[in-house]
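queue> pop job 88
queue> type: inverse folding (structure -> sequence)
queue> payload:
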């Protein structure tokens, strides 16, 4: 299985602290050594770093960890291969353009039967079921709306329903970003926290690093962080329930929606 990392904020923030913890899980404190990726949004456009090497050994990961790049939305991933070879094409997160903005997707789990489903206009570049599921999800959104929905809640509900439909075929923990929202679906294991005033110190679980956020923030700052497993040892993380979708916007949890497959209607019997 893989591990996910997401961050969504109300002020530009760097992800160095959280990424430093995730990076250790890419081959040192956990066996997710089959590549890593990180997407950092600048408005509707995502700057994406991908490397099939273990994150803990990657010079590119070291560069990202040592050079703060501020963003309002970030999605990261460390991979433990289950389907498809270790290569850049199979490294998460995956990025596609839809409605004039980048959509970023990262997955943890295996979606049985995803490749058997018919795709829309999006096509995979690699061979993972994860990327196929990404293309399915975005293709369905493309078919459902003529453009970016004016009512955000319509988009939230669509992502939740599609997550349930696609996730019915396996384990579908995922993060999805559109440049504004961070969507996080829990199938088996996902956690989040929201850092806000009063800020305090935080200590990484996987590295000997401690940061006092009260020295780096203002009273109005708000940062939501999502991870497969809690990244820190002295903060309170909320564990997700299987089959629910979180929606984060401006550093706050805006909605928790059911994300489960709808039951198939039974055929009516004739009298």
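queue> result:
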């Amino acid at each position: 299985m893989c591990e996910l990392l997401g961050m969504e904020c109300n002020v530009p923030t760097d992800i160095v602290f959280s990424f430093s913890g995730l990076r250790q899980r890419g081959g040192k404190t956990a066996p997710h050594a089959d590549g890593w990726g990180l997407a950092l949004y600048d408005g509707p456009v995502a700057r994406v770093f991908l490397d099939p090497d273990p994150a803990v050994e990657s010079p590119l990961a070291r560069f990202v960890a040592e050079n703060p790049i501020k963003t309002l939305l970030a999605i990261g991933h460390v991979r433990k291969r289950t389907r498809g070879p270790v290569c850049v094409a199979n490294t998460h997160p995956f990025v596609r353009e839809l409605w004039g903005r980048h959509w970023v997707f990262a997955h943890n789990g295996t979606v049985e039967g995803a490749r058997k489903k018919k795709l829309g206009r999006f096509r995979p570049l690699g061979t993972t079921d994860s990327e196929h599921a990404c293309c399915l999800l975005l293709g369905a959104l493309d078919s459902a709306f003529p453009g970016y929905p004016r009512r955000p809640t319509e988009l939230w509900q669509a992502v939740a329903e599609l997550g349930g439909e696609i996730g019915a075929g396996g384990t579908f923990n995922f993060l999805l970003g559109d440049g504004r929202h961070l969507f996080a679906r829990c199938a088996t294991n996902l956690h989040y926290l929201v850092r806000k005033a009063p800020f305090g110190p935080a200590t990484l679980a996987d590295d000997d690093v401690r940061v006092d956020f009260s020295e780096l923030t203002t009273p109005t700052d708000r940062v939501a962080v999502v991870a497969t497993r809690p990244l820190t040892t002295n903060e309170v993380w909320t564990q997700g329930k299987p089959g629910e979708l979180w929606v984060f916007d401006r550093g706050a949890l805006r909605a928790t929606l059911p994300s489960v497959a709808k039951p198939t209607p039974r055929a009516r019997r004739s009298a």
